[in-house]
Specification:
It contains 10 helices and 8 strands. The chain is an alpha/beta fold and 275 residues long. An 8-stranded mixed β-sheet has the order 7-6-5-4-3-2-1-8. Helix 9 links the parallel strand 6 and strand 7. The radius of gyration is 18 Å and the shape is globular.
């Protein structure tokens, strides 16, 4: 049975591997298709698609957008047009807000006695898209924490001392932007919203009115209880499923191919996109 992974990141955002390396790793893992879904950028898509065509791995052009929320609400966009003007213009603004967010996190860390400068973080990132993982790496270099996981658990995640809620888009705006770029919109990693099922039902119902197509029905962190519950809720609301590992290369303890998502999931998404 052919398997897929529709949630991966490259070094164009907060992954450790180039887009082509991600595709080659997918090939080595026996995957038939992946989606490159970097945070707030489409810069790696062309490279990934070209490498996929060269070695025989199907690559779905995608993006992951962060939405304003007291927890973690991320919207995945699949089959987007990377050259869509509205998307390109909005990405520029999103990056500006992302920089303000990471600066605020650095300020909060400094205020609690863990000095981190944005200049250090930008140097660690080495690119336009600066993410919390780059802050975590600088914290490790300073000896404040021993791992990326510790940095997030103690300081960077929602509700922690240095978290910043600054985001460029609301969840509805993220969904509508993906639709405008010709894509399908899905809510990512439902567990990270930290919402109860009734609260999640309310969120998904509201976003469906904005054009939401589905939810990430298969994800590395889902349990034997939450995964089926999320998939059942999606079915009740008439939403389709995607699935992915949230692969970040060396930056996250997730391996390609360990989460088994059947190719039939992608086939349903393609059929939905053709309607």
């Amino acid at each position: 049975m052919k398997n897929i992974d529709l949630h991966t990141h490259s070094d164009k955002s907060d992954g450790s591997m180039s887009p082509a390396e991600v595709v080659r790793a997918a090939k080595d893992a026996g995957l038939a298709a992946i989606a490159l879904s970097d945070h707030d950028t489409t810069e790696g898509i062309a490279e990934a698609v070209a490498e996929g065509e060269r070695i025989g791995v199907e690559v779905v052009p995608a993006i992951e957008l962060s939405a304003a929320s007291s927890t973690e609400t991320h919207i995945l966009g699949y089959f987007i047009d990377p050259k869509n003007r509205a998307l390109a213009e909005k990405i520029g603004y999103i990056r500006e807000v992302r920089v303000r967010r990471e600066r605020e996190i650095c300020e909060k860390l400094t205020e609690i006695g863990l000095p981190v400068s944005f200049e250090e973080v930008a140097a660690e990132a080495g690119r336009d898209v600066v993410c919390r993982i780059h802050i975590a790496r600088v914290m490790i270099a300073h000896g404040y924490v021993s791992s990326v996981r510790e940095a997030f658990d103690r300081y960077l995640s929602p509700g922690r001392l240095a978290h910043s809620e600054k985001q460029a888009l609301t969840d509805s705006e993220a969904v509508r932007l993906i639709k405008e770029a010709g894509g399908l919109a899905f809510v990512a990693h439902l567990n990270q919203t930290r919402l109860t099922l009734p609260e999640l039902r309310e969120l998904l119902t509201r976003l469906k009115s904005d054009g939401l197509d589905g939810v990430e029905g298969y994800y590395t962190e889902y349990t034997e209880e939450t995964g089926p519950a999320y998939r059942a809720l999606a079915g009740e609301l008439g939403l389709i499923l995607s699935g992915g590992s949230d692969f970040h290369g060396a930056n996250k303890t997730v391996k390609l191919g360990e989460l088994q998502v059947p190719y039939s999931v992608l086939e349903v998404m393609k059929e939905h996109a053709r309607r």
